[in-house]
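Re: Re: token formats

Sure, here are both.
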Amino acid sequence: MNWYPWLNTPYRHLVGQYAAGRGHHALLVHAVPGNGDAALLYALGRWLICQQRKGEKSCGECHSCRLMLAGNHPDYHILAPEKGKSSLGVEPVRQVIEILYSHAQQGGAKVVWLSQAELLTEAAANALLKTLEEPPANTYFLLGCSDPSRLLATLRSRCFYWHLASPDEQLGLRWLDRQNGGDPIVRLTALRLHGGAPIAAEALLKLEQWQQRASLCNALSAALPQCDMLMLLPVLNHDDVAERLHWLCALLLDALKWQQGAASYVMNQDQLMLVQQLAQRLSSSSLQQIMQKWLNCRHQLLSISGVNRELLLTEQLLSWEQMIGCAP
């Protein structure tokens, strides 16, 4: 698994707590997607399970380390939704819990890694609660999440919460420069659109993704003067609609920043003309109302199974036309 320079400090801090005997058996790491929390938790898991630690590093040579590197350590358990499912049900959780109460096969620590704790169903979370409260000896739970509010309060209360902040913007930009090069304004835009998370920004900068965003920006720029917001439907109505609505809402939020004289904080630094166009075309109250409607739309698309995506998007676009006086 790749390692990232901004993880060095949090890794040393967390390992230091465990080395000093102050580490919690259940660690909940909250991070913006694309900040490398999976790499951080994997490295911590390797250190916990290593049998011949070298200070803050796992040795990489003991039998446990070799099993970890091979991806088949019997005391390292990964909890994740089954292929094709968007949630983690109770049965896999029960199976892991049953295994945890047997002896560690390698005689050392037992580690459970759950990369997206918010995907636990309520039944699965409840099944995990008692074990988190009274875990078997030398057992550690490493949980990642991007939205702690979606977790049961009782589950959060049994974990040690750690916020993995995005790296300093200049550090993120330097890392992106080494990965991609190119236009610094483009890199800055990609980084800000993902809350400063460099790995997510790198994914956005891939040619196909970046072209999709450009298509949305071009369609919006053309639709505004013609008062024909339905021009956006073909570029929004895709399986990755949540990501595209995120781009759209970021433009609306940037227009509000522009109106308040905060242009230096604009996310879409490569689309300043479009941001200015939105700021001049719409009042602050209209921008706020439109953005809230799109956020509600995005939530419905993500949370309601079987929703008619095209119909919902069409309704929102027609509502936008009415709000800005485009409808006859």
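Second one below.
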Amino acid sequence: MIYSFKGYTPVIHESSFVHPLAAITGNVIIGKNCYIGPGAAIRGDWGQIILEDGVNVQENCTVHMFPGKSIVLKESAHVGHGAIIHGANLGRNCLIGMNSVIMDDAQIGDESIIGAMCFVPAEMNIPPRSLVVGNPAKIIKQVSDEMIAWKTKGTQLYQQLPKECHDTLKAVEPLREVPSQMKVQDDVYKTLRETFKK
């Protein structure tokens, strides 16, 4: 659902896909090839939210802020399932792990990786290429070239997804039996651990 609020109507590039079960409200600008999953809420009621090209905000994420704040999720930022971005700015090609919480005025540096279930407190400044875990968040090392290549490949899958959703996603009645020729999807991406197994 797309909602105007106090005269602000979301601006969404036609190449992006917003699931019908997501809610986009007010002063929100979504660039090219972005994916917004079902259950996501992006509320630009109290400030402006910009998603630059290639950003994905996955299922059940929340993006919001305190009144008068505006935030940017820079190009290719990747926000995992269930994460909360509250008044924080995300750097280019960063990864926010599932169920993480990024608080007000935090700055996530370009190509940083925030681990799943991490809590980044208000005003924390994460330098570029940082690997961050824990509650509260702690920088444990620098992101390697191999890790950022793995992250970038995963984000590219999400950047293809809007077109695939526009082309093939449709509401249907379920089948009542499994088709005899049903195949499993191809293995196109491995976990980080699988990727670097010796």
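Residues 145-168 form the longest helix (24 residues). Residues 2-142 form a domain with the UDP N-Acetylglucosamine Acyltransferase; domain 1 fold (CATH 2.160.10.10).
- S.
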